[in-house]
Amino acid sequence: MRILSWIFYIALFVLALAFALSNTEPVDVRFFAGQATWRAPLVVVLLSFLAGGVVLGLIACIPTFFRQRREIVLDR
Question: How many CA atoms lie within 13 A of 58 on its CB side?
Fold first, then answer.
């Protein structure tokens, strides 16, 4: 089972690497109705927005985490 999971992870990494290598053309990202522009390779833009989404998702989970932690302490 462990070997199958490693094969899956390696295949996923190879697919992500192939995606990154095939999307190196620069793109323009316009913020605030075209007043601010960021020019970067497509893969950098996608990965930075993915990382930003992960960070925002984790920040959104913080209040729930502390509420559940407080409930666990009060139940003891």
Answer: 6
Which residues neighbour 28 within 8 Å (Cβ) at sequence distance 6 or greater? 37, 38, 39
Can you list the alpha helix ranges (DSSP code H) found in 23-41? none
In angstroms, rounded to a whole number, what is the distance separating the alpha carbons of residues 10 and 25?
25
Residue 33 has pLDDT above 80, yes or no: no
Residues in CB range of 47: below 8 A, 6 or more apart:
20
Residue 67 CB-half CA count within 13 A: 5
Predicted model pTM = 0.67
Sign of the four-CA dihedral 28, 29, 33, 34: negative
* Radius of gyration of the chain, Cα coordinates, nearest whole angstrom: 20
